[in-house]
Every structure is written in structure tokens, then in C-alpha cells.
Amino acid sequence: MPKVPVEVKELAAVFRVGNFNEVVTGYSQEEALSEASRCIQCKNPTCISGCPVNINIKKFIYQITQQDYAGAYFTIRATNNFPSICGRVCPAEYQCRKVCVLNKNKAGNVSSEAINIHFLERFIGDYGMQHNLTVSQKNNLSKNKIAVIGTGPAGLCCAGELARNGVKVIVFEALHSCGGVLRYGIPNFRLPREILDAEINYLIKLGVEFKTNLLVGKSITLDELFRQGFSKIFLGLGAGVPSFLGITGENLCNIYSANEFLTRVNLMSAYKFPQYHTPVNIGKHVLVVGGGNTALDAARCALRLQKIQGIKPSVKIIYRRTEMQMPARQLEIQHAKEEGVEFKFLVQPKEFIANDRGFVGELTCLNCQLGDQDVSGRKRSEVIAGSDFNLPCDLAIIAIGLKANQVLSSVTLGLKTDKYKDIIVSPKNMETSIKNVFAGGDIVGGEGTVIEAMGMAKKAAVGMLQNS
Ligand SMILES: Cc1cc2nc3c(=O)[nH]c(=O)nc-3n(C[C@H](O)[C@H](O)[C@H](O)COP(=O)(O)OP(=O)(O)OC[C@H]3O[C@@H](n4cnc5c(N)ncnc54)[C@H](O)[C@@H]3O)c2cc1C
Ligand code: SF4
Predict the structure, then answer these.
(1) pLDDT value at position 467?
(2) For ligand 1, is residue 216 a contact (CB within 6 Å)?
(3) Cα 435 to chain centroid, rounded
(4) Of the chain's two ends, which shows fewer C-beta atoms within 10 Å, N or C?
(5) Inter-residue contact 116 to 90 (CB < 8 Å)
(6) One fold for 145-240+404-465 and 242-402
(7) With the C-alpha atoms ordered 271, 277, 283, 286, is the resulting torsion angle positive or negative?
């Protein structure tokens, strides 16, 4: 008889919508022990192959059952630099948990629920942080210094790997604060800033230097960095350029890209206005277009802003397929529903209509139906002609995808990119078409996940350490 999965504690929706406090509060020691005891310690632990950085999941769960929490921490840290971050944001249901043996019985049917690997990882990551556990660092073996561009998960992970191996690393970041999407995209209620700050402080303790407000490609070129004595360079530039719908009225006032909206809220603390100086005039009817994590984060931030500004919450997500096809994490969809975000499925925007002040006032939409599969393997969304209807809208957020920023690649001769303008690398070691320049994360694979970005960065660090 399989044991019952241990549910993780969360703040009730009614208490969380008026603030940006963390929603999931995590496992206690007793809960972690109980959940770990469900793992059957498979001979062939399929969970490991589901993890992009191949954490020895079976081993760290066993160590939890033995209450060897420090051991579990070092097992995870052997392959994952940021367990407290990944334990919070990894889409485990599509990765390690998807292939956990407990998902299936011999007939391939669901027999029990996969182990909550991500919540156990988070528990151990937080334990390590609370107990100041640190991984060992090699003495400074290398005379060379390496430049890392970008401080998202790829840049931070690469810097950590290199610094642990005794390399002097200087990290350059365009924004005034470090963390990439972890700072300006993912809200505090999913990833508290103390966790991110602690990881960055740990890198500083390892000797990593951060230089912010420096846009590489504009303020300094790669050639200049080489001339300054850097022997190798890692590009972790992310995918920061938003896509738009291209429909009439999209340039009206109060229509934001999700990136701008989330940056105003998360990086510039719009929800603390007037204490901070970048407000968002949130309005009564917010529409968010898209179905990924970005759309969900934007919708949940908008709902909180309305609450904080004393407006009756009204936030709708418009998605042209059905819930089944939504790329967002299931947990985030569930949280958004609990908080009062409405979902309009099989609906596509047609045209934004201005109010008498020139701001957005309405969105004309069309109903859709599902057709055949498209290249992504999802069913195509087909518009139903003549199904137009209008929704009130005084703030719209477009969250339909992100593309590569070409600031650096457009001025760097010889840096090869593909048709999406993503940087092309050697799959062997992540080296680009320019010798000694490596790359990883979303700038290589397009929009991906935190752990995938870290996986690429680790591979690049290994490549860079050879002959350094
Ligand atoms: C809103 C949102 C929510 C998400 N939620 C999740 C989630 O729950 N789970 C998950 O796994 N993934 C999630 N993702 C995806 C994930 O965050 C990304 O895959 C990941 O951050 C990519 O990491 P990166 O280091 O490649 O790039 P980024 O995190 O984008 O970081 C790139 C950094 O490089 C800097 N930079 C760019 N160009 C230059 C330059 N020329 N000079 C100096 N600095 C530069 C940028 O300012 C930025 O700080 C989410 C993404 C978004 C947008
Ligand atoms: S596949 Fe599931 S049950 Fe088996 S070792 Fe991994 S986590 Fe434990």
C-alpha cells in the first residue's frame, strides 16, 4: 500500500493576495522525513535522468531518511549550485517527477504519486543555507581571469563553478541589480529575494566580483575585454526581448510587455510606491495575453497590485488554446485560480480599442477551436470567423514569448547566430564560433528553464577550465 504524499504548506489565498510574501512555505523536518520515506530507492532510479543536471536524487533522499541533512546538501551541491532556488522554481512535474517510478505501475498506469523531489530539494537547500554549509574551494590555481556576462542563473552558475575551481571571475551585468529573470521576472512570492541574495553573497565570498550597470556590446566590447587580460569569456545574456501580437492598437498607453511590467513590479518595487519611485497605474480591468509562467506571474502580480491599491481585483488571462496546452507550471495555474485570476481559454486578441483619453479601453477578441497538431506538437488554435466580442481593458500585459537580445551579437564580428538570433555553440563544450568565447542559457537554447540554463553553464565552465 503506497504511503500518502506529504502536502506542502501554503499561505491561504485570502492572506496572500494583498502582499508579495512567499506562498509556499515548504516542508518541516518531520514532513521532509515522511515524504523521503515514500521513496522506494529504486535499483534503476529513473528520476535522475529527468534532472537536467543529473542530481543523485536517490542518494540525497536516502540521506534525508537517515537525517544526514548535511550529506544530502553536499550530494545535491555536487551537481546543482542553487538547490534553494531550483527547489522553488523548477518545473519538476515535467522533469524529475515526471519520470519517478511511482508515477506508473507495470501496466503503465498511475499507481501512486511521484515523490515531491523539488520540495525535498528546497528543504535541504534551505537547511544548508541556515547552517552555513559551504562547498570546498580549490586554492587559486589559475593565473588567468575569466569574464562572465549576465547574472541570470547561467551567469551565476558559471561564475560559481569557475570560482570554486580557483579561477578569478569578474561578472558584468547591464542592470543595477544581479539575478536576471530570478530578480526582475520571478516575483518574490515565488522566490524570496533573501534566497537569491544569499546565493549571490556566497559567490562574493568565493571571490567573484560583480560589475553592474555595464552593457557589454555598448560600454565595452569582447575584444576590449580580451585586451584587458581576460583569457576566456562566458555569455549568459538570456532572452530578454519581448514578442508582440502585431495587432491594431497595441501601442496604446497602458499596454505593457510582461518584461516591462514585471521589471517595474519586481525590480523597481512598484508595489511599494511611493516609497519606491516607479509606479504602475494598475486600473480596474487587467487582461494578460499568454499561457506560460510569465503570463501567470504577471497576472498574479497585477492582482496583488489591485488589492494593494484598494481596487476590486479583476484580472483575466487570455489564452488561445485550452488549459491542457498551457506551458505554465500546474502549481502556478492552481495558485492563480485560487487567488481569483480568471482564465479565458480558446480566445485570441484581435484589436485594442482606445478610450476617449487615448488609453486602452477595450480588447476585441475572437473565439477559437483546436485543430491539428502544429510543429510544437500542440494542437493548433483556429479562429472562429465572426465570433468577435469585446472585453473591458484598462491595462493589458503581453506575455507571448521572449527572444534573443542582439545588442552584443550585432557588434561582435564572427559571433555566429541561428535564424532566431540565438548564439550557436559547440554541443561538446559550449564554445561559440569565436575561440575562447563560450555561451549558455536562454541565449543559446531560446526560452528554457532555470535548471537548463544552469546545466549549459556548468558544461561551459568545464570547457573553460580545460587549459585555463
Ligand atoms: C517571468 C518569468 C518566469 C519564469 N519562471 C520560471 C520558473 O518558474 N521556472 C523555471 O525553471 N524557469 C522559469 N523561467 C525561465 C527562466 O527564468 C530562464 O530560462 C532563465 O532565467 C534563463 O537564464 P539565463 O541566465 O540564460 O538568462 P536571464 O535570467 O535572462 O539573465 C540574463 C542576464 O544577462 C543580462 N544581460 C543581457 N545582455 C547583457 C549585456 N550585453 N551586458 C551585460 N548584461 C547583459 C541581463 O540583464 C540579465 O540579467 C521564467 C522566465 C520568466 C521571464
Ligand atoms: S524514481 Fe522516484 S521512487 Fe525511485 S529513487 Fe527516484 S524518487 Fe525514489
Answers:
(1) 66
(2) yes
(3) 29
(4) N
(5) no
(6) yes
(7) negative
